[in-house]
Amino acid sequence: MNTQEKLKAFQQRIDNGEKIEPKDWMPERYRKQLIRMMSQHAHSEIVGMLPEGNWITRAPSLKRKMVLLAKVQDEAGHGLYLYSATETLGVKRQNLVEDYLYGKAKYSSIFNYPTLSYADICVIGWLVDGAAIVNQTMLAKSSYGPYARANIRICKEESFHKKQGYEMLAKMASGSPDQQKMAQDAVNRWWWPTLMMFGPPDTESPNSAELIKWRVKSKTNDELRQSFVDRSVMEAQAIGIEIPDPDLKYNEETGHWDFGEIPWDEFWRVIKGDGPMNRERLKARRKAYEEGAWVREAAMEYARKKKLKEDKAS
Amino acid sequence: MSADHSNNNVEWPLWEVFYQPGNGKPFEHAGSVHAPDAEMALQNARDTYARRNEGIAIWVVPSSQITASTPEDVGPFFDPANDKAYRHPQFYSTPRAVKKRT
Prior knowledge:
The complex is a heterodimer of chains A (about 325) and B (about 100).
Chain A: H1 3-15, H2 28-47, H3 49-53, H4 62-87, H5 93-101, H6 118-139, H7 145-173, H8 177-196, H9 208-213, H10 221-238, E1 249-251, E2 256-258, H11 264-274, H12 278-291, H13 293-313
Antiparallel strand pairs in A: 1-2
Chain B: E1 14-20, E2 28-34, H1 38-49, E3 57-62, H2 74-78, H3 96-101
Antiparallel strand pairs in B: 1-2, 1-3
């Protein structure tokens, strides 16, 4: 088969709803796009531990501390599922990690915002993990087998993340006036950045059409964003929280909530590295990577010596 | 500080992880982990893939030790199975009276 025929057969498999597995033939561009998208997803999970990890030592109770610890550990797990899945495309994990620590690889813009109070932890669970669920539920049906399977695993855990945050926020929103203020303030700060998590509008999303053609994704950024807004409005109303958007209005015709203009200038600024926490996050990740180098080397050396001993003994 | 990262090239080997989801169930592939040795691979596999009792037993295997069939050969490789209908119970007929009872 020549490349043209291979491409056609590949598209046929995709259109039939088949999954593509690591050793199957795939267009180079499909592989590249997956590596970009999956490693970006993995980096986001790892960086995502920082804003929440920030509050573990200051959790308001032992129960909340245990919950937050478990959640942050899950985020590490999600990062590892995704790196593992990305490696099936023939790349080394260490290269992926170094690409974002020292190179140009990106991660979700949402993690470049600071967590100013414990209410932020509630809102991250409710909104940020809620948005991640919308995205990852779609990715669980992705055409690349290992990516789909990693997302299925992630989705199972993500609903715990969302529910713990939502429950906590509901409690705060019905608490003392100060607590109510804290809750609303956190929602006000996180709402717009969360809507940006779905990526640029469809008109400015260069990768979307190709990713949809290959069924890596099945919905556009704007479609996902809309379904998230619809769900969040209902959930906000149920606990007496206000969505900070004066243009938010139910549209009888479409059956969806229309919302105001997203501050895209801010989005592009944060993506390009100029958000409130970009430098801080990268610094923390580099520090962890560099200061952990001797541990990785020592463990490797210990394993080598142990094996040598065992070989001698036998 | 950031300049010396290029010396940082000790990557732990890759291990494939399989787990048994429950008593009596066959092992399933979960994913992979990096670890310096088998013992650490088992621990990493537990922390990564069995935080909620997803497995009651785990196997780890060096990824380099896995031999897999190739998609290109899938036709000839599995072909012998296609023309042996007599390996299936449907190939055989059973008297009507006996059929009813099952």
